[in-house]
Amino acid sequence: MTASASLSRRIGLIVNPIAGMGGKVGLRGTDGSWRQRRARELGATEMAAERAGIALDRLRGRHDLALTVAGGAMGEKVARAHGYEAEVTGTFGCETSPEDTRDAARAMADSGVELILFAGGDGTARVIRESIGRRVPVVGIPTGVKMHSGCFARSPAAAGDAVVDYLGADPGAARLGEAEVVDRDADDPAAPTTLYGTVTVPEARSRLLAAKSQSSGRDAAAMRGACLEVVEEMAPGDLYVIGPGSTMAWVRRHLGFESDPLAIDVVRDRQLIAGDVNEAELDRLSSEAGRVHLVMGVIGGQGSLLGRGNQQIGPRTLRRVDPDDLIIVADLQKLIDLGSSPLTVDTGDLEMDKHFTGYRPVRIGRNESLIYQVAA
Predict the structure, then answer these.
(1) Considering only CA atoms, which of 174, 138, 145, 179 is closest in space to residue 55?
(2) What is the pLDDT of residues 22-48, one digit of tens each?
(3) Whether 335 contacts 364, CB under 8 Å
(4) Are 115 and 137 in contact (CB under 8 A)?
């Protein structure tokens, strides 16, 4: 499908090509040139263009759509690869920077695009907010290691669908809201998320995630009990992969060790056998194991279960996990705050996402659980 530049509904596309590279190799992000170099040294590959392509494919058939894209790897290449004739703004080399994203966003806003679709993480969202404020609505294609801001869609496909919904309204009549842009210091795992302001987004709550919320603390005793029960039930010889987050910190404490709150740790016979693993290390350990369990918390406000902040758990490891061996622990208030929204999985592998969908038990206290929907 091609889109002519003469058509009236013009959307901007910005791709941060290095976003998300650090996740699978155990880095906390790809902000900064040294972290990008280290990610490549560890074997990380770019993934943003692929995820942007999924979003673009959802726009196929919208003959009233025209694209303005950032040049080169920042949008032009993926747009052309997916059959779009696009107006190009800016010329960017292989090594991109936040300044490139800033310049592209400003140029698009000045040119009159109706909405900017961008692929990146919280760092990219921050730069776009700093450059254009709330002048133009935005939709984030989730690509980064950190995605705590409320402007991101549930998945790349949902990002494309949010744009389709937006285009379905008459120009100037689309319902708009605002979403928080938050980020945390990748060099300080204990640092809290910081609010940097808000951006304008289409009102598409079924498509977009809320900003990450902190645990309420109301059910701390229940969480301690639920996590103790998980530890007590650990089967001898089985491998347990412990996810990141404040809830999982209780599992670690009951096991007798502390860890980086963003780490993925591996336990057998209630003993830590590998800490802060990357995708390759976890793949090797799980390939040598008999039965593999995932012990995961839930990102508050978003309901994200897999694919946000735990990209080290890659498709090869996930294929070795029976969905019944996915152990979910969540504060009841977090689930209440989600309303009717399901928990979500977005691993980058659509077949694997479907493998874990359905209705799963979520532990909310000792001897207490409820059945909750998990969706891709």
Answers:
(1) 138
(2) 555 555 556 556 555 655 555 555 688
(3) yes
(4) yes
